Amino acid sequence: MKEETNPNYFQDIKSTIKQYLQQRFLLFRLEATEKISKIAAAIITTTLLVLIGLFLLIFLSITAGVWLGEILGSNAAGFGIVTLFYLLVFLFVMFGLKKMLQNTFINKLIQLFHKKD
Predict the structure, then answer these.
(1) DSSP state of 26
(2) Nearest Cα to 116, choosing from 21, 38, 46, 22?
(3) How far apart are CA 15 and CA 8, in angstroms?
């Protein structure tokens, strides 16, 4: 028995491969768009939360400075104590928690990028 070969066999395969590659490229673009969108949303949300937190911290610091100034009888002393407190927090974060915070942010970004929903 003789096998019949389709004269358009290679054209059909070429067309099928072309369609497959187009679909794979489209899938890649959609997945990349989804991941970039999730990362952008996370960055925007985090930025907004940080800004709100900073405003809260600023007003809390002003309140603490004025309150300590009234207690001590000198606004300069009250704000100086608040400044010293933030200097100590800054030094602690800079020398004690810097590497841990960096690793936490890097790991979170990697998790967002590779997260499968």
Answers:
(1) H
(2) 38
(3) 10
Q: Confidence band (pLDDT; 50, 70, 90) for 5? A: low
104: Cβ–Cβ under 8 A, 6 or more apart, which residues? none
Query: Under a CB-based contact definition with an 8 Å cutoff, are residues 78 and 72 in contact?
Result: yes
Cα 14 from Cα 75, distance rounded (Å): 80
Tell me the two tokens of residue 40: 């952008």
DSSP 8-state secondary structure symbol assigned to residue 16: H
Q: How far apart are CA 93 and CA 76, in angstroms?
A: 25
pLDDT in tens, 33-42: 988 888 888 8
Q: pTM to 2 decimals?
A: 0.62
Q: How far is CA 64 from CA 4, 10, 38, 81, 89, in A?
A: 90, 79, 38, 9, 16
Domain spans, the chain: 9-114
